[in-house]
Design a protein that fits this description.
290 residues, Rossmann fold, 7 strands, 49% helix, SDR_fam, oxidoreductase activity, Short-chain dehydrogenase/reductase SDR, Sc_DH/Rdtase_CS
């Protein structure tokens, strides 16, 4: 059979593919016939991806402009200037009370979760504009629209990402480029392990006014106690991603877990003070030393 005129596979660039949501998303979209460019920050993770058969795996560090530009250039070179979709998934969580976040610590959180994501998006937009279509999907969080104590840096980054994304979506109307947000909630991944390392590296828990509470925070991050209720596997996010990339009319927002649906409803219905009470009650056990 002559397949010389067969349409090329659609292409997607995905950040944060060393594990969790990024890895699941890459596998899911590959099974659906997409050519996936999975990326990871650490070169050893990129090597591991290539050893697993991901020939298009690339290094991409969201805190490094040169790394971002190099990855986008490599994708464009390999595809002849084509990129159908971008899934901005790479991120980490920096725990700690707001008053214990140094300027440098908050800047590091924003460099990865917001500024690097923004720069990567602006780098791929010319490719999408030149071809007249594209999909940009941002992996946000339930903490992109509600706040929880001791997660201020991450909340800040995701609230900002949602606002920037809403603006971008409006500005791209009529361009053929669609923009969506995914709001996962609790997903089984290495996110807690990475957050634990960030907490120990950047928060002076011993000398903080929040020292008694930090004992419980660290126990939670280390995996002590009950697991987070309603936790889903990463494939639940990948299924929403597929809809956002393939449906002719993708949604602006995709809620994934029960907490995301619940808190979105409560935010619409409750006054702020009432919502605060609900959120503090829901997280009370996390702040009590075991």
């Amino acid at each position: 059979m002559d397949d010389t005129h067969t349409a090329p596979r659609p292409t997607v660039l995905i950040t944060g593919c060393s594990s969790g949501i990024g890895a699941a998303a890459a596998q899911h979209m590959a099974r659906r016939g997409w050519r996936v460019f999975p990326t990871a920050r650490r070169h050893e993770d990129v090597d591991r991806l290539r050893e697993a058969g991901w020939d298009d795996a690339l290094a991409l560090d969201l805190t490094d402009s040169t790394s971002i530009a190099s990855a986008v250039h490599e994708v464009a070179t390999r595809t002849g200037g084509r990129l159908d979709a971008l899934f901005n998934n790479g991120a980490y969580g920096q725990p700690g009370a707001v008053e214990d976040l140094s300027r440098a610590t908050l800047r590091e959180q924003l460099e990865t979760n917001l500024l690097g994501t923004h720069e990567l998006t602006t780098q791929v937009l010319p490719l999408m504009r030149s071809q007249g279509h594209g999909r940009i999907v941002q992996n946000s969080s339930v903490l992109g629209f509600i706040a929880l104590p001791y997660r201020g840096a991450y909340v800040c980054s995701k609230f900002a990402l949602e606002g920037l994304t809403d603006t971008l979506r409006q500005e791209l109307v009529g361009s053929g480029i669609h923009v969506s947000l995914i709001q996962p909630g609790p997903i089984a991944s290495r996110f807690r392990d990475n957050a634990h390392r960030a907490f120990r590296a950047r928060i002076d828990a011993e000398h903080s006014a929040h020292a008694p509470t930090y004992q419980a925070v660290e126990q939670r991050l280390a995996g002590a106690g009950a697991s987070t209720p309603f936790t889903l596997e990463a494939g639940a996010v990948a299924a929403k991603l597929a809809h956002a990339l393939e449906h002719p009319r993708p949604k602006a927002r995709y809620h994934v877990t029960v907490p995301t649906h619940l808190f979105a409803a409560l935010k619409r219905l409750l006054p702020t003070r009432w919502l605060d009470r609900v959120l503090l009650a829901a997280t009370a056990s996390e702040r009590r030393p075991g």
